[in-house]
Amino acid sequence: ETGVTQTPRHLVMGMTNKKSLKCEQHLGHNAMYWYKQSAKKPLELMFVYSLEERVENNSVPSRFSPECPNSSHLFLHLHTLQPEDSALYLCASSQERGIMNTEAFFGQGTRLTVV
Amino acid sequence: AQKITQTQPGMFVQEKEAVTLDCTYDTSDQSYGLFWYKQPSSGEMIFLIYQGSYDEQNATEGRYSLNFQKARKSANLVISASQLGDSAMYFCAMREGQAGTALIFGKGTTLSVSS
């Protein structure tokens, strides 16, 4: 299997549930990202991991908790979410080599609905 | 202030015609990269083309070309000979400064290609 794989593709959860989104990349990249895509809004960067260390956290509420156990896997743990957290959550990876031409490769996303 | 501005929420084009999707950006960095992505209804973000701030030639990739006007801070995507499969959302993105920073995206343009 190649590329960036996200599971599950669709998730419906209640506001009191705890769930996790999983992202796996088979590209040998050393940086991984979580983005949130809501309707009619730009993609919002949530978290950045480089070499398995969190390097960026864009004022994301604590009900979202990322985890990067190794360079190939990234999780987003969810608990006590709100309906406005319903969105498409996209995972991406890239190879950071100290040059600018490093496009990010994206997974197909997890469509999350909070009820 | 927005870093990436895409002023066209929607564009319509007929098959085999060319179309230009606009993108302007805002940065004070001398070194940056500009990217275009395509997002079909399936949700996956597909990398199309890259332009570095020091590149003197406009980038081209098959039917995609990037009209880079540095002084105007614009990086428009030109799609030649449109096909029905080009119907999708198109996002302009930028990476500033040193590699290791994440992509910042615009709001996107929906392209509809008709026969």
Average pLDDT value of chain A?
90
| Largest pleated sheet of chain A | 7 strands, mixed
Q: Spans of chain A with pLDDT under 50 lasting ≥5 residues?
A: none
Q: Give the termini distance of chain B in whole angstroms.
A: 38 Å
Q: What percentage of the residues of chain A does DSSP assign to strands (E)?
A: over 45%
How would you spell out the order of helices and strands of chain B? EEEEEEEEEEEE
Number of helices of chain A: 0
The main sheet of chain B comes to: 6 strands, mixed
User: What integer value in Å does the Rg of chain A equal?
Assistant: 14 Å
Structural class of chain B: mainly beta
Shape of chain B: globular
Radius of gyration of chain B: 14 Å
List the helices and strands of chain A in order: EEEEEEEEEEE
- What is the number of strand segments of chain B? 12
Say what oligomer this is. Answer: heterodimer
Give the secondary structure arrangement, pairings included.
The complex is a heterodimer of chains A (115) and B (115).
Chain A: E1 4-7, E2 10-13, E3 18-25, E4 31-37, E5 44-50, E6 53-57, E7 64-70, E8 73-79, E9 87-94, E10 105-106, E11 110-114
Parallel strand pairs in A: 2-11
Antiparallel strand pairs in A: 1-3, 3-8, 4-5, 4-9, 5-6, 7-8, 9-10, 9-11
Chain B: E1 4-5, E2 10-14, E3 19-21, E4 24-25, E5 32-39, E6 46-52, E7 60-61, E8 64-69, E9 74-79, E10 88-96, E11 104-105, E12 109-114
In words, what does this structure look like?
The complex is a heterodimer of chains A (115) and B (115). With 115 residues, chain A is mainly β. Chain A contains no helices and eleven strands. In chain A, the strands form two sheets. In chain A, strands 2, 4, 5, 6, 9, 10 and 11 form a seven-stranded mixed sheet that branches. In chain A, a hairpin with a 2-residue loop joins strand 5 and strand 6 (53-57). Chain B is mainly beta and 115 residues long. Chain B contains no helices and twelve strands. The mean pLDDT of chain B is 93. The A-B interface holds A 31, 33, 35, 40-43, 45, 48, 50, 55-56, 88, 90, 92, 96-109, 111 and B 4, 31-33, 35, 37, 42-47, 50, 52-53, 91, 95, 98-108.
